Amino acid sequence: MGSMLISIIVVVYLLIMMGVGVFASKRVKTSTDFALAGRKLGPFLLAGTLAATNIGGGTSLGIAEKAFGQWGLSSVWYVITAAIAFIVLAFIAPKLRSTMSVTISDFFEKRYGPANALVTALVMSLPMIGLTAVQIIASSVILSVMTGWSYVISVLIVTVVVTIYSVMGGLWGVAITDAIQSTLILVGTALAVPYAMHAAGGWSTIVSHIPEQQMSFTDGIGIKTIISLTLMYIASFAVGPEVIQRYYGGRDEKAVRNGSILGGLICIAYAILPAVLGLAAFAMVQQGIIDTALITSQGTRYILPVLAVQTMPPILVGVLFAALISATMSSADSDMLAAGTIISNDIYKKYIDKKADDNRLLLVNRIVMIICGLLSMGIALTNTKSIIGILMFSFSLRAGGAFIPYIVGHYSNKAGAIASMASLVSGSVAVLLFQTKISFFGMDPVVPGVLISAVVFFGITAIAGNKKTVNEIK
């Protein structure tokens, strides 16, 4: 009876979300409506969609996994550093929106020319597949634990549901459902905390069964990782299509600034919840309370749904599972939409069919989103690495080369196309090298990537100036 009730709650939730998508699709008349919600998003919708985009299923499961493991309480920094990035970007976002660009690649074409735009489109679109895959992995974990279905079957089901939902309403649908989903994930995860703490014997009992390092606010993750995460998020969100698309879709510059600050505050409020659940699970394992069979066979990424099943009544398990799936959907649909918009607007329209009308662009956007879903499914089926590991690498790859020319290009007209191109290529290659071959003082590859990109960008600018600049941005 309990498992049936859980399934009913989740199915009803998915149907409601799809209904919202159908409703939102009626607002889509043009490709701009689909990609940017007609540039009419207010601060509250912006805050909800920004927070939901960051607080995905991968983040929720990943933080609980890291809290259960080596990071302990300090895993909260994975979300807090993202919140810091939103607050910092609140003071830059109005400038970004003022260019009235559709995508980041669109800005690069206006500022540095078509060659830079094409490279940027490729660098931005490819990581979106990995980011979508992370969300599919996270949701499949939840569904597998909830139903007892195999992980493979769960991946197939999740991919179908998320892909269908994602292609319906564009940014309007994404923003409205994200506002609902960000509320649900906060409520659902908060409801799980008292049950987990009670099952573990209370906070004092939890603390007594956890090593001192895991209870530190900084030791587990380390200061270097906190710094590199902060830099990674600022750089990655500043050029992240799923974030910038929200800023471009803002009603005005004031709405963009306030929405970004509020989105950051929502993330801070959420950060502690999955970390506490991960610690409670660790203490329960130490006491022999929790069934470790599934954790042993499938890995610690299952710790949050396993904890919920063993400590909460079925109706609340259903709410939490719906919340976690909603978090996954809120990130997956954003990543798919960003990939579709980049490919349709910056590659198809400019290089394949320059006369394509809005109907054709909408169709191409949706087809690309479906392809993105299928490729992400393939990654999800073969993934054996940490959820957060995939997230961090995807964030770093897109930020390493694009951050400097994109941000500086809004404030200075001194740099030209040559400096931008060299910066894009050198920063991206550096991220790949430092990810696979070289260590940079234990910090995320985005740090040396951005540094090398900056040296190349400003060095060439000092030598060549802006002779190859296509347009100045006022």
Question: Helix and strand layout, with pairings?
Answer:
Layout lengths: L1 H24 L5 H6 L6 H12 L2 H12 L8 H13 L3 H5 L6 H9 L1 H34 L3 H16 L3 H31 L2 H6 L14 H17 L1 H8 L4 H35 L5 H6 L4 H9 L2 H39 L5 H25 L4 H25 L5 H20 L9 H19 L10
Helix pairs in contact: 1-9, 1-10, 1-17, 3-10, 3-13, 3-14, 3-17, 4-14, 4-17, 5-12, 5-14, 7-8, 8-9, 8-17, 8-18, 8-19, 8-20, 9-17, 9-18, 10-14, 10-17, 12-19, 17-18, 19-20, 19-21, 20-21
Describe this protein with a few key phrases.
474 residues, mainly alpha, Sodium/glucose cotransporter, transport, Sodium:solute symporter family protein
Model description:
It is a multi-pass membrane protein. One of its GO terms (molecular function) is transmembrane transporter activity. Pfam families: SSF (PF00474). It comes from Oceanispirochaeta crateris. This is Sodium:solute symporter family protein. With 474 residues, the chain is mainly α. The chain has a single domain, classed as Sodium/glucose cotransporter (Up-down Bundle), CATH 1.20.1730. Helices cover 78% and strands 0% of the residues. The longest helix has 39 residues. The termini are far apart. The relative contact order is 0.19. The mean pLDDT is 83.
